[in-house]
């Protein structure tokens, strides 16, 4: 029996609409999570974000937890999308849909912008190729990307980096490259492959600027990695900074980008600044030295407890509170030991 052509056209039209809406929903979800991560990285606490967006604190914690890792889309949703796309070869995604094929299919908006600007930087230097050094300059130019903020925190400035790469590490070409897309060097291609692995290891569905930065740092014989090393930033230190970037101190609200250490408790963090200041407040000798944003919790607060070990105020010697968490003198002593014996830049658990 032949298919009714009118009904078939309607079925194809609605199928294409389903595919378009699924793509749009996924893009909106990723954009939302990215916006929440950037808001948290700017210094806002998870409680503040939850109240402002009308979401639960637990939901915001899920989004920014694990250093900004994103869970992969549910298998049922992904499976449906793939089946629809596979069965409908003539189906088209809506305008502006992310590419589904090619080397940059999983690149997020900031990472794709980096690649485009890397080509611009190569042409600025009269180079007929795109190397890791050009990608590094692209990262610095995408100021809204996490990588640019991270690079700024270690002292990398766009103009100074551009001058150093052009005059000292690379040199300027003699003539303008031909029109059209410039080829990538083997090292830059390898950096993209490693960036994809970094994204997957953090359960992110997209490659972002911070993943590109880590990919560059892993190409040790690349010019970008050499330049980063001169700034004292190798792969391990940058990885630690990326892991901290989406976190914040629960006592003072400082972004993970602005501190050297974050010691983790069950869903809370404390930076080295608050370990120092809270320790002084917790000491009877320095009791009068009040620290900004920190205070000793009075004994009358019988319901107060340490957010790091869970002990009630009656069980501990002294409790110091910050903007959204409190820590006891015993946990502070453990944190001081952690800081004294740990030189890594990544968040670590005192327990």
**CATH homology superfamily name of the largest domain:** Clp, N-terminal domain
Helix content: 40-55%
What series of H and E elements makes up the topology?
Answer: HHHHHHHHHHHHEEHEEEHE
Task: Say how many strands there are.
Answer: 6
Beta-strand fraction estimate = under 5%
Major sheet: arrangement of strands: 2-1-6
The CATH topology of the largest domain is: Double Clp-N motif
Structural class: mainly alpha
How far is it from the N-terminal to the C-terminal residue, by CA? 69 Å
Count of structural domains: 3
Unreliable spans: 66-101, 287-291
Instruction: Specify the overall morphology.
Output: flat
CATH class of the largest domain: Mainly Alpha
Number of helical stretches of at least 4 residues: 14
The largest sheet, given as strand count, sense and whether it forms a barrel, is: 3 strands, mixed
Question: Radius of gyration, rounded?
Answer: 25 Å
CATH architecture of the largest domain: Orthogonal Bundle
- Give the integer mean of the pLDDT values: 79
Summarize this structure as a short list of keywords or feature phrases.
351 residues, mainly alpha, Double Clp-N motif, 3-stranded antiparallel sheet
